Amino acid sequence: MQAPVHHIIGLTSIVRERVLPISGNVTARIQQKVTPNDVVAEAKWAREHVLLDVARLLSISPNAADRLIKCKVNDEIKANAEIAVGKGVFPKSVRAPRAGRVVAVGGGQVLMEAGETKIELRAGIPGSVIQILPNKGVVIQTAGGLIQGVWGNGRIDTGILVNLAESPSTVLTPNRLDVSLRGSVILAGVVKDADTLEAAAELSARGLIIGSIYPSLLPKAYEMRYPILVTDGFGSLPMNSAAYKLLSTNAKRDVTVNAEVYDRYTGAKPEVIIPLPTASDLPSPKEVAEFTAGLQVRMRRPPFMGMIGSIVSIKPGLTVLPSGLRAPSAEVKLENGETAIAPLVNLEVVG
Amino acid sequence: MPSSIITSNSLLAIDVGAANTRAVFFDVIEGEYRFVASGVAPSAAEAPFKDVAEGVRNAIANLQTILGKTLLDSSRNIITPTQANGAGVDALVVTLSAGPTVKTVVVGLLKDVSLDSARQLTETTYTRIMDTISLSDQRKPDQQIDSLMRLRPELVVIAGGTDGGASRSIQKLLDPIGLASFLMPEEKRPSVLFAGNQKMEEEVKTLVGSLAASLHFSPNIRPSLDTEDIDPAERELARMIINIRKRQIKGVELLDLWSGGHILPTAYATGRMVRFLSKVYGSQKGILSVDLGASAAVIAAGFKTKSTLKVLPQFSLGQNLVGILNYTTLENILQWSSLDISSGVLLDYLHQKSLYPASIPATQEDLAISQAIAREALHLAMQTARKDFPKNIANIKPNLTPLFEPILAGGGALSDASRPGQSLLLLLDGIQPVGITTIILDQNNLLPLLGVAASQNNILPVQVLESGAFLSLGTVVSPVVSAKYGASILKAKLSYESGAEANIDLKFGSIETLPLANGETGKLTLQVSRGADIGFGPGRGGVIPVSGGALGVVFDGRGRPLNLPSDSVRRRELIKKWNWTLGGG
User: Fold this and answer.
1) What single DSSP character describes residue A262?
2) What CATH class is the domain B102-248?
3) How far apart are CA B221 and CA B520, in angstroms?
4) Facing B362 at nearest CB: one of A51, A266, A302
5) Residue B560: its pLDDT value, please?
6) Is the ipTM of this complex over 0.90?
7) Which chain A positions have a beta carbon within 8 Å of B58's beta carbon?
8) Which domains does chain A possess?
9) Shortest CB distance from B359 goes to which of A47, A111, A345?
10) Does B416 sit within 8 Å of A325, measured CB to CB?
11) Any CB–CB contact under 8 A between B359 and chain A?
């Protein structure tokens, strides 16, 4: 059986697409070296629209209104500008209620877009632009450590990684967060209260990487303007040993936390990237692996949820589990020395 | 049925679910169609695979191993028709429920008339209603445009106007749809279904036609104020959903090709089968099908006058699992648990399971939690679906589940249960059937596949249904009664074909069974206490023929609606006792 691979790798080639949500203008060039905060593409987006029903306002037919409308598509209109004037001794006029750009004229109506804002797409990771996606974005390549998570609050930032987790299950509390951590990316085990998230915000933290978070804190986590990345799940789960080891040994390095919201259809996952200089071309990590003996896996459900182990053997046929269910399963030797039988669908390949 | 009448032989039915893809093989055995075997593989709609055809190929490969028969060629393409060497299959059909819920905006003239019908239509498939637009909408057209631009719906369903009736009002509603579509990039424009005033077809084409990803018409779902006919539009909508999936998910196009266009949304195929069953086997009672899956809870009910289909992604057991808390509380879910589980553990579970929808409970505690959630999801789904059941249907009390015969049940949560008794108790708790009904477990999730197979081969569904491929859990007698715990509410005598007899004195609050194996029949004599109703009227008993099942004849004396004890220790003891009575462990 094939399984998707969850990446926790010390050194690999990382290739990421960065795409605008709407069509726009790509500002980066091919082969350009970018830092995470560099703008690589931008787009203009109108938040609001104004529909002027000239025919109705002048009490005339749409065709007659079309003949009276003074503006055309793409005209920039100032607030209170005259759009159309009726006929007669005391003609009524239709004026733009606010400034905007005309996007459609016809049927006796004028549609304008207003409140235009600019969307800037940042590189998100340091690296080289290896492909331009016209009107959409870029593909960036870098090399370094890669730690994927399971939940992110949608933010992205870069900073120096500071390890506040003595162990993978260390609970982060507000009293651990002092001014010396200003502008850092903080590594911790578990977050159990909203005050901790607020305290990190007050420090202008550049990111928070944790093993797990209480589900009740998720709305608050979305409100935070710094990236929050959860590596393992919800509740009091310690960070898995592979992620903890890799992150804690890279403390004091610059890391990028892209706490992208997990999208199971596009494959976008929250991830931490630790840029590392390398002389050689590295292969990209495998996205899919076949369950076989020796493969490193993580338990996704109880028992031993979150624990890393390696497959000893794939059991033939279906195995009866302690729950009474029957499923294709594997014998897994866990890092604590215990052996467990786990259904294959509850295992995640790590590598 | 003589085999000579059967022209097309083997049929491969594929179900692409959110979590799993199943390949099911049907063939003619001794002159009749039979379910032969099924192969399962994880679905591949999601990253990193992003190609449902890969999951299908893997499921077929597993099926090949079970069958000892080659179905795929060296390029992993389906071999069709069957070759001289026995490889391949004669026909292929597909049902599909994988994919994100389709973002939908519903448009209708009047809130309680066409808008309500459009909502009902939209809820017959895998959609999420993001916004509604009607004449009572207080927003200005430009605000409606802003909303559409923000939501970026993939589907717009429009109803309104009796045939030949209102047209200017509909035009007014169409304006923002056309303008918003015009502003969207071409690849992001929604598909539009117009199911309103049939005289407006040309105007709709002018206003929306060139601006929608695709424009479809169906007969008016509200041809007059007091007439509603959703069925033809449901069929059109089903086709549209497949077309939307073709754009969204790689591999759907290939499956469409392999199946020669015999591909349907799973829920629609289930609804079609229930409609067929209610016509063929229908009595005064309705026919009910419930399916609890990773993508949605699907409730299909067939009545003499009308069939209803309700697809409820909000009560799915997959990635949307946490969303159930918008409709219930942790405490309500935990009341169904046989183990003492804290609300914190449950909350963690809901979030963790949402991350890994395909994972299964490996421990007793995980199973208890997953089954408690399934009970609550089914209960909520039934309550929601009941609101759209026709008014004049057979029931004992209007606020309870109507009378059904039989009840068919399928989906991951039910086929996951390790013992038939676990599935039955889950269904009794979730559906709370009343009167006398047979409960049938679709353990291989065949019902939707038979629904889509009917379009290819109309003999197959009938023969497979009668072949024993479904597991009868038993005949269930559920009196509607209010009494003191332990009071006698029903006496039953089961007379076996052998001449033997078995008796039971059902006490309020208990569940009892009388053995009657699958394939056996018997005569059940029922006497009920004053006020108790099993569908014959208060206090009236009767003699009925019964068929056997995995649990025999089951008597659910817990009353309706089911009120669980508020004392948690006592409640858990009772749940364990009921489970034990039904052999659920």
Assistant:
1) P
2) alpha beta
3) 45
4) A302
5) 96
6) yes
7) 1-2
8) 8-13+143-275 (3.50.30.40), 47-117 (2.40.50), 291-350 (2.30.30.30)
9) A345
10) yes
11) yes
Residue A116 near residue A99, CB atoms below 8 Å: no
**Inter-chain touch B359–A301, beta carbons under 8 Å:** yes
Supply the mean pLDDT for chain B: 93
Query: How many Cα atoms occupy the beta-carbon half-sphere of A351 within 13 Å?
Result: 20
User: What's the CATH number for B3-96?
Assistant: 3.10.20.370
Contact A301 B344 (CB under 8 A): no
Contacts of A323 in chain B (CB under 8 A): 360-364, 366-367, 418
How would residue B6 be classed by pLDDT, with cut points 50, 70 and 90?
very low
Which tens digit of pLDDT belongs to each residue from A183-222? 999 999 999 999 999 999 999 999 999 999 999 999 999 9
Angle, nearest 10°, between helix axes B114-122 and B231-248?
50
Q: Distance between CA B337 and CA B313 in Å, rounded?
A: 23
HEC-encoded secondary structure of A193-225: CHHHHHHHHHCCCCEEEEEEECHHHHHHHHHCC
Residue B5, pLDDT above cutoff 50: no
Q: What's the CA gap between A348 and A351, in Å, rounded? A: 10
- Work out the minimum CA distance from A252 to partner chain B, whole angstroms: 31
Set of chain A residues whose Cβ sits within 8 Å of the Cβ of B348: 215, 233-235
Q: Write the pLDDT tens digit of every residue in A19-41.
A: 998 899 999 999 999 998 899 99
Q: Which of residues 209-248 of B touch A (CB under 8 A)?
A: 248
Can you tell me the distance from the alpha carbon of B393 to that of B420, in angstroms, rounded to the nearest whole number?
30
Closest chain A CA to residue B65? A317
Nearest-Cα distance to chain B for A182, in Å, is 31
| C-beta separation of A261 from A171 below 8 A | no
Q: State pTM to two decimals.
A: 0.94
Give contacts of A47 with chain B, Cβ < 8 Å: 146
Q: How many CB pairs under 8 A join A and B?
A: 145
pLDDT at residue B2 is higher than 70: no
Same fold, B3-96 and B102-248: no
pLDDT band at B8 (very low <50, low <70, confident <90, very high): low
Q: Which of B169, B138, B175 is nearest to B156 (CA)?
A: B175
- Please check whether residue B44 is in contact with residue B66, taking contact to mean a CB–CB distance below 8 angstroms: no
